Amino acid sequence: MQRCIVIGLAILVLSFSGCSDSGQTSVVAAAPMQGEPAAQPSSIPTENVFVASGPVVVENQVDVAALRDGVVVSILAQPGTLLHKGQVLAKLDDRQISADVEAAAAKVRSIEANLKNWQAETKVLQADKARAEKLYDAQVIPKEELDHARYKEEADEFEVQREAESLNNAKAVQKSLELELEKTSIIAPFDGIVARRYVRAGQKVSAGDRLFWVTAMAPLQVKFTLPERLLGAIKRGQMVSVASADTSPAVEHAAKVIDVSPVVDPSSGTIEVLAQIEGAAPDLRPGMLATIRVDLPR
Q1: What's the fold here for domain 61-94+185-215?
Q2: What per-residue confidence (pLDDT) applies to 16?
Q3: Which of 20, 31, 157, 212 is spaced 20 to 30 A from 223 at the CA atom?
């Protein structure tokens, strides 16, 4: 009886020992192998960067329009022509207005001569008045003759004033016609390049018709929008990075924020930002789409 009890206890001890070894084995199997890195909790890296896109623009970009009616007689600039401010792009027929300017100049010269004539006559009458005053003081002539000399000299002074005003009017008319003559020359309003030409030689144009599209090439700027939640994260003077959206590999250029819209567009919930590219950017052209990287405060 005691032997059976001892054998039973031995079997129980061996059973518990086997369970303990099995648990230990499972733990060892779950441990990483020698040299294998332990698994880390998964996390998504976050960067304080916002990427936007917008067009490359320039401050000076306009359609040059005709300032008066006329016929185009010559075209002096083609698309791609580099321009300087004041350079002539095209000429309108100016024969009629040139003749009007010459007529106005002749009238100015005529009035100037007439004014000099009245001024000289006034000096003669002033001398006659002075002589009449001396004769009257000597009681040689009556007071009526002295008054006559005085009134005549005064009337000539008014004639001088009238001619002087006529001369001013004639000069103003001449200046107006000269300005009209200048309008027959289509000139570049600033340094830049001809992007498009809309007119041909011999074509009749009216005032307001566009003739050329002229654009500056520098300084380059980028215009983009940011969500309204970033209104306090962007400020004037802040630097951003600009790269062409179509160039690979992209070359980044530094740009300084020069304007931030003080209001939010209610239709899109965005703010408009304007940044100016610093230095040369030969890979960028006005009208291109650019990618703008904005570093946000941490």
Answers
A1: OB fold (Dihydrolipoamide Acetyltransferase, E2P) (2.40.50)
A2: 44
A3: 212
